[in-house]
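Reminder to self: keep the SMILES exactly as supplied, no canonicalising. Ligand is flavin-adenine dinucleotide.
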Amino acid sequence: MNFELGEEQLMVRDIVRKFAVNELAPLADRMDAEDYFPADLFRKLGKIGMLGVTIPSEYDGSGLDYISQAICMEELARISPAFALSVGAHSNLCLDNLFRNGSGEHRETYVPRLSKGEWIGCLGLTEPESGSDSLSMKTLARENGHGYSLSGSKTFITNAPVADVALIYAKTAPAEGHRGISAFVVEATRNGYRRGRKFDKMGMRGSPTGELFFDDCEVPASSLVGRKNEGAAIVMSGLSVERAVLAGISLGIQEQCLDLVIPYAKDRRQFGTPIAKFELIQEKLANMYVGLEASRLLIYRAIHILQKDKSKNKEAAAAIMFASEASTRTALDAIQIMGGYGYMREFRVEKLMRDSKLLEIGAGTTEIRKLVIARELLGEH
Ligand SMILES: Cc1cc2nc3c(=O)[nH]c(=O)nc-3n(C[C@H](O)[C@H](O)[C@H](O)COP(=O)(O)OP(=O)(O)OC[C@H]3O[C@@H](n4cnc5c(N)ncnc54)[C@H](O)[C@@H]3O)c2cc1C
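Structure tokens returned for the bound complex:
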């Protein structure tokens, strides 16, 4: 076992930290207040190689591992969890997934553009009537002789309001259930591709979330990602990688909470003494620290296992389940430590609580993560 980060991982941490502090921090409050998505910053992150973290250099990526991508999530989330979420949806859910499962043509056409941030990507799995039960999706892809015609809709899709390209799951053999799902890469300029509402969210504001509609949207046969009717395997392997990497956002939230409350607790005086001297405050700080470090170990271990075998699911489910709950608990404790000030927007911890709650819902809810863990323990699939 090695608990040290490697040279390249430390390099990613430093590069992204510098970017987050210098470029992202000045915009983080505006993102939350105005639900503002800083598209230029997205492209800047691409230029420094941090959108295509896991993509080989010949496709304009940095050729690093998933731990590096989780570190990227953590460092961005330490300043803006919403920006980290949009980057995660682009880099991991769309780009990395497309690179792993796409054809040579997909790699040539989409991967460099997405790595450099010239295009923004999203992944559409969830539909209005299929969330946790995602494989019961209704979106259809009918073969029409020269390709497929997509009809249906997706909802709650991160980056949908701004994405240039989407990785979309649809039924190619509806009677076959989950054995009849395929993945497609669909450009936003295609006829019949329509962006719907952008949602007004509780947290993660500045990460645009929206609907997508497909009204007989015709795509060529070459849009198929992976093999026909084998999309469920892509969904499942993608979900575990997504869970493990995006859990890095919860690390950033927990770090940011500690960054904010420690100086506050040392400075704020009540009963003639800094509140940091009170043992009930110290208990909260200790719990926050343990939550953060335990989350980190679970996340890194899950990624380590997934890097060798992407069919493993329970470790990533456990990591994001624990880390997201720790992160919300930590944000609530941070508010409590700051008392009335913590309840005020300008002290920022209430925002972290709003942001954190998403991590218990997106990429499969806490309840579904528990089912994944239990079923794997019981030897069920
Ligand atoms: C901000 C945001 C961004 C998102 N980004 C994306 C994205 O980029 N791409 C994408 O495809 N999706 C995305 N999603 C969708 C997300 O993955 C779903 O919201 C999530 O999977 C839950 O589905 P649902 O909202 O339909 O809830 P439901 O599935 O309706 O669940 C409702 C409740 O029932 C519980 N429940 C459901 N089934 C069971 C069961 N078998 N046992 C016990 N309890 C159960 C759930 O845990 C939950 O508490 C995003 C969601 C949000 C809010």
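Points to follow up:
Residues 89, 93, 122-126, 131-132, 156-158, 201, 204, 209, 358, 361-365, 367-368 surround flavin-adenine dinucleotide (CB under 6 Å).
The domain at 121-229 is CATH 2.40.110.10 (Butyryl-CoA Dehydrogenase, subunit A; domain 2).
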